[in-house]
Amino acid sequence: MKNNIIHYCNIKNSEVYLDGKKLYEGAGEEDFSSFIKGVYKNFNLDYPKFYKMDGLCKLAIASSSILLEDLKDEIDPDMAILLSNKSSCIDVDLKHLDSISQGEESYASPANFVYTLPNIALGEISIKYKLRSENSFFIFEGFNPTFMIEYANSLTQLNKASSVLCGWIELNENNYNAFMFIIKPENGIEFTRKNLEKLI
Asked: Domain containing 141: what range?
């Protein structure tokens, strides 16, 4: 059986959707930091390290948690993770640049690097859900469904994973878009470029 999309989650424009159903709406004027804290509290995500994380990691943990929480008893530790975005961790890079650009009194703040970089997002999802699997984070100019389909299908076809948690996790200041989904050989939405472009 071919892989299909069995569940998906979207976080953007101050809203959270699971399988196309709106579950949460923040205040439209709030910045990303306030919005993602509201998401964390609303869904009782219960992950103490959340407040230490940079914005990219918070977005990845929030979207994956909303997607996986109801499935946590069924999650195979063999589930792979395949994520991508455009801006990498530019949010933290800009904070770092600002902290060292203040003249003689400037210094690099360790607080900017406690939980940062795309690999940390992969690691935290793996830790929270006890995944011992293949994981990769790619940087593209935009969402790349063709690559996502080919890579995720190869992981299951080569028996490197039983399923794949895929996603586009983009954050640049207050512009954010998280689209995460699970693919596996079960009934669901056909895993095609057209459907991915429609769902994101």
From this structure: 4-199
